[in-house]
């Protein structure tokens, strides 16, 4: 495709082309694809307001004004950093397609994100949460299995909702997870999670199932695959019933999984493998969490603290 041809593509077409590039060449997850496409769409809207109609005419001050506008709309430093990363990736895509040789991002640094330790539950709170679902109902059995896998296996919400029935081998006690970059990892399933999934498959999923060819492990009330949003609603609904008020997300259960493993003496590299982290530095944030927890316990309990 010629550079001229690409410039003439309507917005939906070049966004689709960028999305295809992310999937095929960057092996990005659908979550990342949606986020990047949204960011580029926002940037294009901003450029139109400034009267910029050609990607080759974009300058650094256009990028900075866009980021300033998004900051005024409440975007955090971390969110702004992701938007800048999306724009840089998009320009690499344009240069590879011969649309432009221009790079308005030379020497631009990402906005600093405030360092925040992830939210996590204490072990007794995790146990309280896992006891909340009413296992006398099909949806309660499903919710119990969802919570057990999130906490017991440390899955990302997208990894959980992508699971098909065949991904779980209860006889071996493992689940095959497709993580970021389409990388597969095998994660062990503990006794409690295994029991919850077994009960769900035997007693609840057949009642929720509407089509015999549906492969999704977790189903919603309509008999189709449970969505990421559906899982977030499940977690927040049961979190609202906890003794301690906490804004809980599925990712907080993943954080709890890692934190509790490390506090019990698990090797950092094993936790890295279980989480599916490409870099050990990503996992090391949990060592800070466990140190902070130990300090708080020491401070509260030791007579000479």
Structure description:
It holds the Pfam family Phage_int_SAM_1. This is Tyrosine recombinase XerC. Residues 116-299 form the Tyr recombinase domain. With 305 residues, the protein is mostly helical. The protein has two domains: 3-96, DNA polymerase, domain 1; 123-301, Orthogonal Bundle (hpI Integrase, Chain A), CATH 1.10.443. The protein has helices spanning 3-7, 11-24, 30-50, 60-72, 77-96, 123-130, 138-153, 157-161, 191-208, 228-239, 250-263, 268-275, 280-283, 285-301; strands spanning 168-169, 174-178, 184-188. The chain has a three-stranded antiparallel beta sheet with strand order 1-2-3, with no helix packed on it. Helix 7 (138-153) runs antiparallel to helix 9 (191-208) and helix 7 (138-153) packs across helix 11 (250-263). The longest helix has 21 residues, at 30-50.
Could you tell me how far the N terminus lies from the C terminus, measured between alpha carbons in angstroms?
Answer: 69 Å
Task: Provide the spatial order of strands within the biggest beta sheet.
Answer: 1-2-3
Sheet-strand content, in percent, reads under 5%
State the major sheet. 3 strands, antiparallel
Uncertain segments of ≥5 residues (pLDDT<50)? 1-10
Count of separate structural domains: 2
Q: What is the residue-averaged pLDDT?
A: 83
- CATH-level-2 architecture of the largest domain: Orthogonal Bundle
CATH class of the largest domain: Mainly Alpha
Tally of strands: 3
Order of helices and strands: HHHHHHHHEEEHHHHHH
Q: What is the overall number of helices? A: 14
* CATH fold assignment of the largest domain: hpI Integrase, Chain A
């Amino acid at each position: 495709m010629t550079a001229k041809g690409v410039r003439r593509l309507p917005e939906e077409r070049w966004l689709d082309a960028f999305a295809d590039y992310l999937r095929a060449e960057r092996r990005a997850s659908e979550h990342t694809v949606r986020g990047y496409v949204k960011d580029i769409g926002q940037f294009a809207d901003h450029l139109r307001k400034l009267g910029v109609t050609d990607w080759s005419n974009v300058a650094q001050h256009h990028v900075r004004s866009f980021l300033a506008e998004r900051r005024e709309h409440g975007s955090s430093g971390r969110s702004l950093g992701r938007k800048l990363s999306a724009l840089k990736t998009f320009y690499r895509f344009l240069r590879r397609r011969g649309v432009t040789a221009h790079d308005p991002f030379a020497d631009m640094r990402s906005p600093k994100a405030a360092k925040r330790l992830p939210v996590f539950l204490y072990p007794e709170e995790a146990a309280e949460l896992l006891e909340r679902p009413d296992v006398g109902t099909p949806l309660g059995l499903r919710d119990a299995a969802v919570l057990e896998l999130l906490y017991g296996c440390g899955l990302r919400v997208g990894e959980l909702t992508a699971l098909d029935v065949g991904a779980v081998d209860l006889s071996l006690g493992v689940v095959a997870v497709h993580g970021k970059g389409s990388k597969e990892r095998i994660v062990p399933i503990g006794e409690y999670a295994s029991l919850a999934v077994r009960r769900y498959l035997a007693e609840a999923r057949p009642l929720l199932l509407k089509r015999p060819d549906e492969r999704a492990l977790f189903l919603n009330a309509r008999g189709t695959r449970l969505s990421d949003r559906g899982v977030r609603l499940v977690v927040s609904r049961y979190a609202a019933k906890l003794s301690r008020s906490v804004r809980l997300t599925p990712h907080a259960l993943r954080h709890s999984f890692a934190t509790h493993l490390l506090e019990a003496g698990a090797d950092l590299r094993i936790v890295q493998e279980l989480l599916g982290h490409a870099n050990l530095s990503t996992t090391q944030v949990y060592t800070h969490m466990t140190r902070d927890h130990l300090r708080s316990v020491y401070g509260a309990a030791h007579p000479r603290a």
